[in-house]
Specification:
Layout lengths: L6 H66 L5 H25 L4 H14 L2 H9 L5 H22 L5 H26 L6 H24 L2 H11 L2 H14 L7 H90 L16 H59 L3 H27 L12 E2 H10 L7 E3 L6 E2 L1 H20 L7 E8 L2 E7 L7 H12 L12 H12 L3 E6 L5 E8 L3 E2 L12 E2 L5
Parallel strand pairs: 2-4
Antiparallel strand pairs: 1-3, 2-9, 3-8, 4-5, 5-7, 6-7
Length: 626
Amino acid sequence: MGRSRTIRMKIIGLLLVPLASMVVLWGVITAVTATESLELREYKTVWTNLRHPAYKLISEIQRERLVSAKLLRDTAGPAAVAAQRNRTDAAKDTFRQLSSTSKNRSEEIRTQVDAVDTQLDRLDAIRGEIDAGLSDRLHTVESYSAIIETIFSLHRHVALIDDIPIYEQSRVIIDLGFAKELLTREQAIALGPVTETERRLFTQIVGNRRFLVDQSLSELDRPLRDADVSLISSPAYQRMRMMEDQIIAGRTPKSWLATTEALAKSFQESLMRASATLNARAEPIADEVLRRAFMLAGLCLALVVVSIVFSVRMGNRLSKELGALRLAALEVAQERLPQVVAKLRKGETVELPELSVPSTTTEIDDVGQAFSIVQQTAVEAAVGQAQLREGVRHVFRNLARRSQALLHRQRIQLQDMQHRATEPDALEDLFKLDHLTTRMRRHAEGLIILSGATPGRGWSRPVPLLDVARGAAAEVEDYQRVTVEPMPADRLAGPVVGDMIHLVAELIENATVYSPDKTPVIVRGEKTARGFAFEVEDRGFGMSPEELAEYNERLASPPEFDLADSDRLGLFVVSRLAARHDIRVTLRGSPYGGTTAIVLIPEEHVAEPEAPAEEPRRPMRVVRSE
């Protein structure tokens, strides 16, 4: 079972669920809008530290690709190639230095930057193949193009932000940049006469570039596309398209290199202007997003505060009303109702306690009325139980009294038959029947005791305690196993003798029942400072510490007799008899593994010996009932 909580805590816990949801929603909205604003503010930083160096690196690699293609066509010398390689290496070092700070922004950016670094490490191998004459024009173009495509992949991933308009325009600018990359590929391939394979690749690149330019210009905002539209509409661009068609047709146009170099430069300048314009547009948008985020966060916070105040006030009111109902119910259940039940058991007239708690909540009033109904039902059940218990006791007494009278008459008749019997076998059978009758009489007396009455059997004069022990042993079935050891000649007061014989007999019978058949049961007696003590010891299987504690508690404080609890019924009788005469009965473990019952008789019930009497010098065994 989980740990219980107070009514106030449960109400607060119930109210915290919607409040927590509102707080979480407020936090999520604030975090999302703030993140969007921060991303827009970082857009310019990412451009400065990552994308702009990447564009510069792309331009230098494109120039190195072009000069390498010239070298393979013998139109450029090693000095020009070496100079361009130095410029490429410088751009590469700048990119790596600036991009190292951007790696910490996200795992995705780190992965893309690492991929670019891996491709840049291939530059030395590509250059070595060119210098050794192991790479042709087409392979050289494709090798450099693979590096550039990796850098453009970095651009596309870095441009991913939550602001859709900014992202869309950034993506279009990147596509235009890739269109410029395709133009420089065309430039490197068609520096002179081309092979059939080169022409097919050239044709494919031209188609991709034209499609990409047309699509990008249709998606680009007007302020960003004006320069590109002017470029596409320029005579130089139209002349370049005618040259492309000539190359596709198998001819080699003049001024191809000069025309494409001028267009590539114009493309690059247009891209840089569009990127700068987009960066300038992102900052005020970020401010607006942040302003809206603060306004929304403030509104949500105000709603949360109002909800908390309202919920706490309602919770306090309900908690006070329920607390008052709880205290009233506890007072009735723990004090007033037990007093009513106790009076009912005594047969007294009672008045039902009322449960009245003022409340402004209908449900709490209903709970109070329901508790009053439950209380009424409990009292009625207690009355019924008291009547039933008294009826059962009355039945027990009547049946037991009748059985007691019949058994008394039967015992007198048996004694008369014993005096007249002459045959030993018949006499032995009569003795057994007499012993059985004695046991039946004790059981009848047990029923009388459980019903709350007294058996009626008593003595007018004190009886030696040794005779009390012998009489008790004679009333059990296995009396042959019982050994009564010698004990002092002290006597027991007459009014207590009958109950004491019954009490000790119950203990002896328990000892014989819960021990093996061939083991002895020892009864001892000795005088103590506070009276006299009997010990009944068996050599059975004993009881666990928990059982000993439970039964000692029952013996010390006799419980209400329950018909459903019939195990060790004799202990109920023992506890009733002990309580009647202020006798203390205790169970403990025996040194032989069984159980020892100690009966401490108060001094007021013990009388001095009437006259000196010689006690037997050895233990005596009971042979039959007297």
